[in-house]
Amino acid sequence: MPERLVTIKVDGKEIEAPEGELLIRVLRDLGIRVPTLCHDERLTPYGGCRLCVVERKDGRGGLLPTCSTPVLPGMAILTDTEEVRESRKRQLQLLIANHRMECPVCDRRGDCRLQDLVYEYGAPEDHAPFEMIRRPIVDNSPVILRDPEKCIVCGKCVRLCEEVQGVAAIGIVNRGLDAVVATHLDQPLDCEFCGQCVNACPVGALILKNEPSFVPVWLREERTTTCSYCSCGCQITTQAHEDNVVKVGGDETAEPNMGKLCAKGWLGWDVLGNEARLTKPLVRRKGKLVETTWDEALDEAVRLIKKAQDTAADIVGIGSPRMTNGDAYAMQRLWRVGIGSPHVTAGPSGGLQAMSDAFLTEPGKAFGTVGFKELRDAELVLVLRGDPTRTHPLVKTELVQGAKQRGQQVVLAHSLSGGLEKSAAKHFVLQPGGEPALVNGLSARIVERAPAMGDALSSREGSSAWLDSLKAWTLETSASAACLETKDIEELADMLTRARRVVVVVVGALGLPGDEIETARAASRLVELIDASEGRSAGLMLLGGRANARGVIDVGLHHAFLPGYRPASDGAHRADVAELWGSVVEGPGHSLDDLVDLSRKKGIGLLYLVGQDPLAGWPRSLSAEEVVAGADSIIVHEAFLTPTARKADVVFPVAILAERRGSLIGLDGVERTLNAVVQPPAPIPQDGDLLTELARRLGKPLPSSEEMDAELRKLVTFGHAGATRAVFDAVEAPVAGERKNGALLLDVSPTLFHSGTTTHRSRNLCELAPLVALRLSAEDAAAHGVRGGELIRVSSDVGETLLRARIDRTVRKGTAVAVPSSRRDGTATPLERAGDQTRIQIRRSE
Amino acid sequence: MKSADTASQSGNLMSASGYFGPEASEPQGELDAELREQIDAYAAEHPGGQERLIPLLHLVQARLGWLPVEAQEYVADTLGMSPIQVFGVVSFYHFFATSPRGKYQIKVCTGTACFVRRAMDLIEELEKQLEIKVGEVSEDHKFGIEQVRCIGACGLAPAMLVNDQVYGNLDKKKVRSILRKIKKAEAAEAAGAEEGAAS
């Protein structure tokens, strides 16, 4: 929408400003200081604190709240007059009359917006005609403490909770001097613990309980880095005191997250100081893992590598999709050149298979689809496979804001639970894995209504075969394949046809039911079908399951691809890369799926695991027990003594998360920096340093990290939206699906508080969500006569276990949510069948 | 007698043993099926969003005389809101009651005209006669006293409402006489009911 510029007068000077823009933004752009307490750029205008007032001088007179006044032609205002200053001072006096002024001992001393403003505008000369209302501190929730005597009822916490987080766990009750922020029936907080409320509180009314109040803000060192819990790429600011992170916040003006965090990003950093962290290398001596020196451990690793090389056994390197670009690049380069083994890949992660198998990415470029801007601009967002609330919290808040603040239509189509349903326009509850059928049906409807849209794809290879095959997808067969009513399909097709800008989000995470490759393929074709038509645009967002899921493939940590999606099997591409490296071993190497067979038939010479815990973290389909048992020797990089590390021959402790430096590629394709904002508990290296030293000792040194970075940038162009395209070919004819009812669907995809084994080591996160629990909807619990906190017997056709029931309002009726990856470290017996959706029965344990 | 705030707020409290809200899931309590149907019907006839909240609360209060927590929760669910958002509105407006009202709910107007014509005397007399304070309800749930803003009957000041019936030009004596009449009518009704039950 083109903005019309109009002329207004500010402090006597004529300026041009876009009509309808909020006055406060115009003033702040001019460099004029406008004090506020309730204003937040992430929220819709509110106008509560009245501190942003200016004097109106265009014949109408009076004071204007600039935070909620749009620019109109001919406006004239004065921003710094006696009347303005007097009004602001009065407002402040009224606020502090009902505020417990214990500034010298307040947790927020030196970091309080009210304190700043009182200092600027002066302390009150007279007393307000009422006494401060005494109210006790509310301390009935985990993590967060509420002090109503300090609350100035600006409502920021309440509005963030609703408009941004979509939770509305708190509200303002009563009015006037009695107004307080409260939970429903004064119960403990029942929320996502994103910390938005605490971080936005302008005063000391909301306090993070474990924040040490004896460290004032001026003794804290602030540093910014990228959160590496998931792939959203949130920028976080850590406040550290003597190398301990005391608080994590965010910059409200910094992309991509605008200061927004989630429970993991806000609270998950106590993992770093966990006393179970490994600080010294371990080697196996006489069958036992014992501490040793770095020298000895590295020599032992070299010996094991050489032994495997001598026996011509396969050396399999499996890195983590959490590794930095530099570390992942170093690893695959060491394998493909120094060690001479093509068997190097990243461990399992949501989205990896789709990225490598479902699309075509131009060689030399990084995986490239749409980013946050396109997501925000979209009129309609279709979310497939899962709820980003649990896996990609920033995407979730963007969609909540889209729906609540901008009227964006958010449509969910998956089988699981989450939290986004409340803000979404529609939630089509699918049968597990029903996404491809739905999306094919939608493509078929669109082509049927507007054949010209199909014709627009004619230049694309395979598109005619695809369009032909869609003819079998009639309204009826599509509905029956997707297990939906025909009217649901029609309705969604209608919505897609009307929207001018569409983004389809495919959620990737381990444990989501269904086939991510098939879903991504179907979605990418639908997107290109819409995008090819005149006057409309569509894009796809594939949300990788781990922090650097995209980056690790981009830089070549993949058995089938060299850096920049160059097929490792292609001689010409290998020759290109060899020009920089000297040589490249021929690929492809073993994929993760090949490993069981390999360990059964030939055996694995050496399994080198970087941040991989197959025994606890791999999906059952990969048969981790057999793979681990089939390896002659095992070397791991780990921060903790994981189940797999216990079986290893050499264990190297490494720096993790915010202790690392380097860069990550976010789910939007943007490269972001990791700044090593925290020191590890002992002098320990990060993965790349260790691999570099190992290479040196092997007599096959890697180039310096600067040289490798330069190489990498020659081989891969990042940030190329559109480098990745759909692959068109015929789809299979629809198969009638069947709605399964009765038993509960077991949902082991990541939960908001636990995304893998690292989060299990965070006391904060475990306090919020215990591991050994099965979350049920209130309806299902009632139907089974189960109460929250009770032990229940959970059985599937694979086994049976005891879990404690918890009632969770975000769990959809018909599903039961268990914490992922907690199943093979002794906390729960396996309940899932390999690679299938599992139905479970529950009953009270007597 | 019950005080205004605790009656509804503690009545149906689920045992909050865990951090994640209602651990024990009592089936949605005492809310009768007919009222649920009325709420559903209203929501179905008036498609839309949260702007339907106040009309729905009026509907419930017209039926029950007050807004029990279960009803607030049901309305919240119907509109896709959080219960705390609903309670925020309920607690903001004096008109909405969060505890049961009396069968005869007496609203004494203390708008300017009534106030200067000694409305506070009426309250004093009511409190004395009924042995309850403003905002409370008698133990037998027959009487409740409320102090309200202008009811638009300034010409009759001081005035009060007993349910929907307006009484004007009042003084302490007239208040006593009104209470006597109500109690008499109540006694007759009770006797009638007993007779009916006996026969």
Structure, described:
The complex is a heterodimer of chains A (846) and B (199). Chain A has 846 residues and is α/β, with parallel strands linked by helices. Chain A has a seven-stranded mixed β-sheet with strand order 14-13-27-26-25-15-16, with helices on both faces. A six-stranded mixed barrel of chain A has the order 31-35-32-34-33-36. In chain A, strands 2-1-5-3-4 form a five-stranded mixed β-sheet, with helices on both faces. In chain A, helix 2 (82-97) crosses helix 3 (113-121) and helix 13 crosses helix 17 (486-498). The termini of chain A are far apart. Chain B is of the alpha+beta class and 199 residues long. Chain B has helices at residues 4-11, 33-45, 53-64, 69-79, 83-92, 112-116, 119-130, 172-198; strands at 104-109, 143-148, 160-162, 165-167. Chain B has a four-stranded mixed β-sheet with strand order 2-1-3-4, covered by helices on one side. The longest helix of chain B has 27 residues, at 172-198. At the A-B interface, strand 7 and helix 28 of A face helix 5 of B.
Q: How many strand elements of chain B?
A: 4
Q: Order of strands in the sheet with the most strands of chain B?
A: 2-1-3-4
Number of helices of chain B: 8
The tally of helices of chain A reads 28
Find the structural class of chain B using helix and strand composition.
alpha+beta
Number of strands of chain A: 36
The description of the largest β-sheet of chain A is: 7 strands, mixed
Low-confidence parts of chain B lasting 5 or more residues at pLDDT below 50?
1-28
Summarize the structure.
The complex is a heterodimer of chains A (about 850) and B (about 200). Chain A is of the alpha/beta class and about 850 residues long. About 0% of the residues of chain A have low confidence.
Indicate the topology.
The complex is a heterodimer of chains A (846) and B (199).
Chain A: E1 5-10, E2 13-18, H1 23-29, E3 53-56, E4 63-65, E5 76-78, H2 82-97, H3 113-121, E6 144-146, H4 156-164, E7 170-173, E8 180-183, H5 196-200, E9 206-208, E10 221-226, E11 235-241, E12 244-249, H6 263-267, E13 282-285, E14 288-291, H7 294-310, E15 315-319, H8 325-339, E16 344-346, H9 352-357, E17 359-361, H10 372-377, E18 380-384, H11 388-391, H12 393-406, E19 409-414, E20 426-429, H13 435-449, H14 451-455, H15 463-470, H16 475-482, H17 486-498, E21 501-507, H18 516-531, E22 537-543, H19 549-554, E23 561-562, E24 566-567, H20 571-581, H21 595-601, E25 604-610, H22 614-617, H23 624-629, E26 631-638, H24 643-646, E27 650-653, E28 661-665, E29 671-675, H25 687-697, H26 705-715, E30 724-726, E31 744-747, H27 763-768, E32 773-776, H28 778-783, E33 791-795, E34 800-807, E35 815-818, E36 839-844
Parallel strand pairs in A: 1-5, 15-16, 15-25, 18-19, 18-21, 19-20, 21-22, 25-26, 26-27, 31-35, 32-34
Antiparallel strand pairs in A: 1-2, 3-4, 3-5, 6-9, 7-8, 10-11, 11-12, 13-14, 13-27, 17-30, 23-24, 28-29, 31-36, 32-35, 33-34, 33-36
Helix pairs in contact in A: 2-3, 8-25, 13-16, 13-17, 13-18, 16-17
Chain B: H1 4-11, H2 33-45, H3 53-64, H4 69-79, H5 83-92, E1 104-109, H6 112-116, H7 119-130, E2 143-148, E3 160-162, E4 165-167, H8 172-198
Parallel strand pairs in B: 1-2
Antiparallel strand pairs in B: 1-3, 3-4
Helix pairs in contact in B: 2-3, 2-4, 3-4, 4-5, 7-8
